[in-house]
Each structure stands twice: as C-alpha cells, then as structure tokens.
Specification:
With 511 residues, the chain is an alpha/beta fold. The protein folds into 4 domains: 105 residues, Beta-Lactamase, CATH 3.30.450; 75 residues, Signal transduction histidine kinase, dimerisation/phosphotransfer (DHp) domain (Helix Hairpins, Orthogonal Bundle); 155 residues, Histidine kinase-like ATPase, C-terminal domain (Heat Shock Protein 90, 2-Layer Sandwich); 119 residues, Response regulator (Rossmann fold, 3-Layer(aba) Sandwich). 42% of the residues lie in helices and 23% in strands. The chain has a 5-stranded antiparallel β-sheet with strand order 2-1-5-4-3, with helices on both faces. A 5-stranded mixed β-sheet has the order 7-9-10-12-11. Strands 14-13-15-16-17 form a 5-stranded parallel β-sheet, sandwiched between helices. A hairpin with a 3-residue loop joins β11 and β12. α5 packs across α11 and α7 packs across α8. The protein starts with a helix and ends with a helix.
C-alpha cells in the first residue's frame, strides 16, 4: 500500500509540475486538469475546468476525434498524435499538439490528453517556408532578368536608333516613343522582381525622411485621384537614416498606390514620420524587429481595410486581390525586399471599415550628418564619339550585332567575340591595340566576364573595361571589389548611356 501511495503521489506531482497541459477525461467530460491547462486556455484555476465537456475547451470536431481515439485505445498502448488550431478564452488563436492515450483509474477507463502550444514553432516553420519560397522565386527572377534585359537592350537601342532618323514622320516618332516608354516600364518591372528578392544593388546615402517625404508628395499628387486628400504629418526634428533614397521613394509610392486603390470612392491618405524606440516587448510581438531607435514611416488610408483571411498573404510575391491585368502582385513584395535590405521591417494594422496603416521601421543614424543628395542632371548635348579600337564580348548574337552597330555608328572600330575562348584567340592578335573592352559578365563555357578580363590583363595590364550585366546580384559584389579601370553597365541600356560611358572610360586619366 505504501508503494502504491508513493506512486500515486509521484504521478500527482508530475501532473501538477508539468509545463504541458494535461487533461483526464471520461464520458466526454473533464475529470482532472493541471494548472498548465488552465493557463493555456486562459483560466485562473484548473478547478474551473472540472466537469466541462471537452468540446468546451477544444474545437468540437477535434474534441470528437480525440475522444474516439482515447476510447479506442487500450491502457498502456502507444498514444496517437494530433495537431490542430484552437481558440483561447480571450479569442486569441493557438496551434496545439495533442498526444492522446488511455489509462484505467479506479477501474474506470479515462482518456489522457497532453496538450502543447506549438504556435511559435509553427510560425518559425511558416517563416522558413516563406524564406525558401522567396529564395526560389528570387533565383527564377534573376535568371529571367538576365534574358529579359538582353531583349530590352536590343529593343531600346534599335528604337532609339530609328528615332534619330530625320526622315520619320511625327506619327511614327510618337509610336516609337511609346515603344521606348514600354521598355522603360518593362525594365522597371524587372527591377521590381530583383528588388523583392533583394538582388538589386543599393546606393546608400544619408537621408532625412522628412525631406524625402516632402519631395515625394509632388509625385503622389499626380498619382492619386481628386477625391483623395493627401495629408503630410512630419515629426521634427528627425534623425537621418542610411538608405538608398530612390528605393525608399519607391517604397512610399508603392504603399501610396495601394492606399489609393483601397479608396475608389475617395478618402484621406496620410504620409507621416515618427521617432520610435523599439523595446523588448515590441520585438516579441513582431517577427524581424530589433531593439533600438528607429525612424518610422507610415502610410495610412481610410479605405475598407484588408480582410483577415487575406492579411497573412499580402506580402507574398504575385499575390493580388485586384482584377486580372490590374495588378502584378509585386508592390508589397518589393517593399518587403527594400525594407529588409535596409535592415528594417514593415508592420501592418487594418480595421474593417476604417482603413489600413503600413509602418516601415528604419534604423535611426544620429552619427550621420544629413546632407542633401545631389540630383544628377541629364546630359542633353551631342553624343560623344570617337575612333578608338574596341573589343566587344557578348554571347547573345543579336545583341552583340546591335551593340557593335551602335558603337560603329559613333565612330569606333569594333572587334567582337561571343565566348571566352574566341575572345582569347582574338586577343592573341589584337592585344596592345585595343583601348577598351566591353565584356558581358555572364558568358558560356564556364568562364565569367571578370575572369576573362583578368586573363586579358596579363598581356595588357592597363586595359580599360566596361562589364555589362543583365543580372542584379553581381553588381554590389563588383562595386565592393572596386576593380581599377573597370566600369559597370546594367542592362537594359540605351545608345546614349553606352556612348557616354565609353567616352568617359577612354578619356579617364590613368591613375
């Protein structure tokens, strides 16, 4: 009897001390529950659960499944595992893992249900799946961008060349200009693909978000409809951030366009800034957040709000609730990519019938002095020309032919090749004569453009080089390496950009 009493006391102690919720059930009603169970479901004491039907604690369907499992098990047999979603007493969702077995107490069969909150694990698994999906889509986007930018370069250069002819009629010129504008939009779509996958190179500078927000409102006024009021609310003074100004501007525009579309009958669009200190409690509530001082950028609309069922998916690439042809589903995915590149995060609050607020958090940088970013002026002068011998290395035959013709139009003498092996054969004959090499970064036969340049520079160390790339992700790496005498040219490009960069490289003084 003493041993039996000790065994019962030991089991009672384990039952009470368990961090997992433990429930004993018979005839569909709870006969015992520990304090962990009470805490899990938002009750003060375990006694409050005694006598309740199991279906009062758990979703009716899942409770029925577990009762069936418990009643069909023999005492001591292996338990059955269930994973399901439930709701706590305060209406907050929770994902539970339940292990159901059977035991005989005082000669009566009981179901033993051990419940564990696995919400945190489920969230981490969901984040991992999302990250893997983003990486896969990013790799796809990068590959598509390379081929797509080659095509856009060809279309853009050919169109610009035809536009330069004096004989074309005004109507034809207008149509060709529309082609140029279409290639610009297509190039922007490619940049968005690369941005959400975080493969677009950043050009960081010291930025004051108040100044940037003030400047971007001029653009927003043209984007929104007349029945929408634009309200600017700025926190002053505001510490600067280290950011790519054009990317942050794109973030604001994307969020503002979403806000506009959420208010087809009009409303108020508010763009505001604030200074926030993010504490440990905030970090616990928000995945991706970090403690510290942050500048907050908010875009708020007074639209109908985002449906709860849709909210978890709004940052997914290509997800859209708009009609076919009216949205790419990239807007918020692009914003996510930009914000993460800036070591920040984005939060969303939405209330049905009242509207939505997106808040972007960027690290405050009080150590930086705010300076106005210089706005580059477009050179509208005559195209620079020359007659120097150049080498062009491009694996796409159509694009190679087009770039060669463009360079020859500007007076240059061009030798061209399509592979690394062909290039080196030509280099045996022409090294020492070539003043500048234009080399595609991605080449067939296992050699990339930078490796090819290194081989060419063995014979001609001072060779000047322009590396052309249709990808986004290699550009930051190359910029960090800062290879002397090497300039970068991102595809798609137009004849004017090509001519200016070639002339600039040739005229640059040797250090």
């Amino acid at each position: 009897m003493a041993a039996l009493r000790e065994s019962r006391e030991w089991l009672t102690a384990v039952f009470a001390a368990s961090r997992d919720a433990v429930v004993l059930e018979t005839s569909g009603r709870i006969t015992q529950a520990n304090d962990a169970c009470a805490r899990l479901f938002g009750h003060t004491k375990a006694d409050e659960l005694i006598g309740l039907p199991l279906s009062k604690l758990l979703p009716e369907h899942d409770a029925a499944r577990m009762l069936k499992s418990g009643h069909s098990h023999a005492p001591g047999s292996a338990p059955e595992l269930f994973i399901f979603n439930s709701i706590r007493r305060d209406s907050t969702p929770v994902q539970l893992e339940a292990s159901v077995g059977a035991v005989a107490l005082d000669g009566e069969p009981h179901s033993v249900i051990v419940l564990r909150d696995v919400s945190a694990r489920a969230n981490l698994e969901a984040q991992l799946r999302h990250a893997q999906k983003m990486e896969a889509v990013g790799q796809l986007a990068n590959g598509v961008a390379h081929d797509f930018n080659n095509l856009l370069t060809a279309i853009r250069c050919q169109t610009e060349t035809i536009l330069a002819y004096e004989q074309i009629t005004p109507t034809t010129k207008e149509m060709l200009q529309q082609v140029v504008e279409a290639t610009e939009r297509a190039a922007n779509l490619t940049r968005q693909l690369l941005t959400f996958s975080r493969r677009t190179p950043m050009q960081p500078s010291t930025v004051n978000l108040n100044d940037l927000s003030t400047n971007v409102t001029k653009l927003l006024k043209r984007l929104i409809t007349e029945n929408i009021v634009l309200d600017l609310q700025l926190h002053d003074p505001l510490p600067p951030v280290c950011a790519d100004a054009s990317m942050i501007e794109q973030t604001i525009v994307n969020l503002a366009v979403n806000a506009r579309d959420a208010m087809p009958r009009g409303g108020r669009l508010t763009l505001s800034t604030a200074l926030n200190y993010v504490d440990a409690n905030h970090v616990k509530r928000q995945p991706g957040a970090h403690e510290g001082e942050y500048v907050a950028l908010r875009v708020t609309d007074t639209g109908g709000g985002i449906a709860p069922a849709v909210l978890p998916r709004i940052f997914e690439p290509f997800f859209t609730t708009k009609d076919v042809g009216k949205g790419t589903g990239l807007g918020l995915a692009v914003v996510t990519g930009i914000v993460q590149q800036h070591e920040g995060w984005i939060e969303v609050e939405s209330t049905a019938g009242r509207g939505t607020t997106f808040t972007v958090f960027l690290p405050a940088r009080r150590d930086l002095a705010t300076t106005a970013a210089a706005i580059p002026k477009q050179d509208t002068g005559a195209m620079p020309v020359g007659n120097e011998p150049l080498l062009l290395v491009e694996d796409d035959p159509q694009l190679r032919k087009l770039i060669k013709a463009t360079l020859e139009k500007f007076g240059y003498r061009v030798t061209d090749a399509g592979t690394g092996a062909e290039t080196m054969r030509l280099w045996e004959k022409h090294s020492g004569k070539i003043r500048l090499a234009l080399v595609d970064l991605i080449l067939p036969e296992g050699v990339n453009g930078l490796e090819l340049v290194e081989q060419m520079r063995i014979r001609q160390p001072g060779l000047r080089v322009i590396l052309m790339s249709g990808y986004g992700e290699e550009i930051p790496d190359l910029e960090q390496k800062a290879v002397p005498g090497v300039k970068l040219l991102s595809k798609p490009f137009d004849p004017q950009s090509l001519a200016r960069l070639v002339r600039s490289c040739l005229d640059e003084k040797t250090p």
